[in-house]
């Protein structure tokens, strides 16, 4: 496992934050350059109310991370300290930001937990439980919004381009991937953990992975032991975990709602508003965008998200050409802080934890 963790973290370097940042900024810069002359900035006047809504947007970010930290503390049964939970959450977010969305930080999250003192099996079990809870949110919420909103509200037909004409197809592909993963996690966690253990052992019997077979065998045994502990948890334990997950993802999406409100109250005419129905529609479209990110190979969906946002969310930005500015502000608030924080804490974490390994 010692060799395996080094190989797994080989690409988990702080300088990898540069690539997704460049991709996203280049794409947005091109749009800004194209539409900058269309924007009438004289329409805007920053007010105390707009500052209040911006603070509310950052408040949603706080609740997003708080939910993740609470969930990590709950799933570890208190074995991880609050400080360890905070570090793991930010490392995990950084990993998600610099890897393709279909991979995310999950691929290396087990190592974060293991290096913070948990067994490999328990670390794997917690990561799988976390992944299951995240995907469960999507598998429940996506059908719900499909029932609430019409097809044209979720997938506007007046947009041009291949991506926009096939939004439903991409969303369904993303949803099927999430549903499949949710079912696999549920089966491995609650019905037959031996299935996952056998799968891991089978994979590491392959010739080019055989040198890690001993570590994989131990991890499979530890996973079954740790999984028995998870299966014994009561209803309150899972209710807390599900609630923390719901808080995190819902707060993540409502960041954009408050940023749009800040924009609306800054328009001097004051005629533009967002209705309650539109707030939920903005939330629903963000959920669709997250599903679309699964089929995109770029780190953290960089470039793709900014591109889709400029058309997909244009209905809620009344000022011509300003959608690209909103896309940039939204990504600066929700995406780039995790690149920066991760780039700061990752080198020290790697140095400290791998120094312990050598000792």
Summarize the structure.
The protein has about 350 residues and is mainly alpha-helical. About 75% of the residues lie in helices and about 0% in strands. It has helices at about 1-10, 20-35, 50-75, 80-95, 105-115, 120-150, 150-155, 160-165, 165-190, 195-205, 215-230, 235-265, 275-295, 305-310, 325-335, 335-359.
Can you describe this structure?
This protein is mainly alpha-helical and 359 residues long. It has one domain (2-358). The chain is 74% helix and 0% strand. It contains 16 helices and no strands. The chain has helices spanning 2-8, 18-35, 48-75, 82-97, 106-115, 120-148, 151-154, 162-165, 167-191, 193-203, 213-231, 235-266, 276-293, 304-312, 323-334, 336-358. The longest helix has 32 residues, at 235-266.
Write the topology of this structure.
Elements: H1 2-8, H2 18-35, H3 48-75, H4 82-97, H5 106-115, H6 120-148, H7 151-154, H8 162-165, H9 167-191, H10 193-203, H11 213-231, H12 235-266, H13 276-293, H14 304-312, H15 323-334, H16 336-358
The number of distinct β-strands equals 0
Give, in order, the helices and strands: HHHHHHHHHHHHHHHH
Percent helix among the residues? over 70%
The chain-level structural class is mainly alpha
Radius of gyration: 22 Å
What's the number of domains? 1
Shape: globular
Poorly predicted runs are none
> Cα distance, first to last residue?
15 Å
Report the average pLDDT across residues: 77
What's the main sheet like? none
Helical stretch count? 16
Estimate the strand proportion: under 5%
What labels would you give this structure?
359 residues, mainly alpha, 16 helices, globular
């Amino acid at each position: 496992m010692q060799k395996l963790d080094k190989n797994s973290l080989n690409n988990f370097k702080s300088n990898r934050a540069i690539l997704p940042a460049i991709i996203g900024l280049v794409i947005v810069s091109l749009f800004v350059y194209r539409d900058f002359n269309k924007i009438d900035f004289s329409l805007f006047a920053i007010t105390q109310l707009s500052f209040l809504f911006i603070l509310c947007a950052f408040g949603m970010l706080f609740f997003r991370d708080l939910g993740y930290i609470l969930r990590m503390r709950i799933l570890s049964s208190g074995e991880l300290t609050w400080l360890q939970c905070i570090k793991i959450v930010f490392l995990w977010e950084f990993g998600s930001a610099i890897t393709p969305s279909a991979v995310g930080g999950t691929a290396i999250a087990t190592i974060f937990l293991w290096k913070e003192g948990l067994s490999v099996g328990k670390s794997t079990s917690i990561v799988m439980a976390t992944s299951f809870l995240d995907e469960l949110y999507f598998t429940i919420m996506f059908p719900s919004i499909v029932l609430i909103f019409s097809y044209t509200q979720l997938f506007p037909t007046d947009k041009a381009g291949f991506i926009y004409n096939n939004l439903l197809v991409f969303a369904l592909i993303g949803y099927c991937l999430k549903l499949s993963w949710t079912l696999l996690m549920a089966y491995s966690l609650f019905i037959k953990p031996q299935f996952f253990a056998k799968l891991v052992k089978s994979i590491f019997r392959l010739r080019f992975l055989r040198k890690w077979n001993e570590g994989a065998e131990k991890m499979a045994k530890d996973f079954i032991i740790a999984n028995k502990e998870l299966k014994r948890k009561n209803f309150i334990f899972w209710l807390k975990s599900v609630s923390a997950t719901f808080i995190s993802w819902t707060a993540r999406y409502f960041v954009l709602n408050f940023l749009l409100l800040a924009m609306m109250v800054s328009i001097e005419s004051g005629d533009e508003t967002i209705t309650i129905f539109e707030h939920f529609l903005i939330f629903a479209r963000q959920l669709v965008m997250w599903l679309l990110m699964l089929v995109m190979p770029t780190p953290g969906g960089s470039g793709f998200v900014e591109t889709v946002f400029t058309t997909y969310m244009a209905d809620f930005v009344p000022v011509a050409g300003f959608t690209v500015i909103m896309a940039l502000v939204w990504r600066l608030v929700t995406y780039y802080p995790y690149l920066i924080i991760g780039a700061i804490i990752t080198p020290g974490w790697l140095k400290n934890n791998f120094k312990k390994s050598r000792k």
